[in-house]
Amino acid sequence: MVKRATSKFDKDDESAVGEARILSMLSGCPGTPNLYEYFNWRKHNVLVMELLRGDFLSLLEHHPHQKLSRKTVLHFAFHLIHTLEAVHSFGILHRDVKLANVMLPFKQSPTVKLVLGDFGFGYKFESNLKRKGMRLRVPPRVNPIPGTFFDES
Question: What is the pTM of this model?
Answer without folding.
Answer: 0.70
